[in-house]
Design brief:
With 156 residues, this protein is an all-alpha fold. It is 58% helix and 0% strand. It comes from Lyophyllum shimeji.
């Protein structure tokens, strides 16, 4: 009888400890490691210092070489969303761009992928240096896809 009482007491104390652990773990406020996009937590965790990247100098690069490099860099970004958006934009627009527009697009590609994506989709305001960019405006029109074109990755 005494042994049964000890088992019950031990089991009760274990249940109490387990429930106390669960209660304390559930009441602690932990930061969500994967907050929903565009929530204040997500915006705060993805904000970074607005530092303009230093482009790689490419003296004496011809317009044809620049155009070919931009085609490749538009396709091989690292995130599928940016790859699809930029590669279809490059396919549709690079052949008609002037050399000055190609250089501006080259500077845009030096920015981080998610920044370009959010600026083009209108989820974030671009920094002042891109505020009056014709290339970014054209990319935003491309991102809206008002013609409801089914977009696929272009062949390399």
């Amino acid at each position: 009888m005494l042994q049964n009482l000890r088992r019950c007491t031990l089991a009760s104390s274990r249940r109490l400890l387990v429930s106390q652990r669960l209660f304390s773990a559930s009441t602690l406020r932990r930061a969500d490691p994967w907050p929903l996009p565009h929530t204040p937590e997500h915006l705060a965790s993805t904000a970074h210092e607005d530092v303009q990247p230093t482009p790689v100098p490419r003296p004496n690069e011809s317009a044809d070489t620049l155009r070919a490099r931009l085609h490749y860099q538009s396709r091989k970004r690292g995130t599928l969303e940016s790859d699809l958006l930029l590669s279809t934009f490059a396919r549709d627009n690079l052949s008609t761009m002037s050399e000055a527009e190609l250089r501006e697009y080259d500077r845009l590609l030096d920015e981080p992928d998610w920044d370009i994506y959010y600026w083009a989709t209108g989820k974030r305001t671009p920094p002042e240096r891109w505020g009056d960019s014709e290339i970014l405006r054209r990319l935003a029109v491309h991102a809206k896809n008002e013609g409801k074109v089914v977009r696929r990755m272009p062949a390399l």
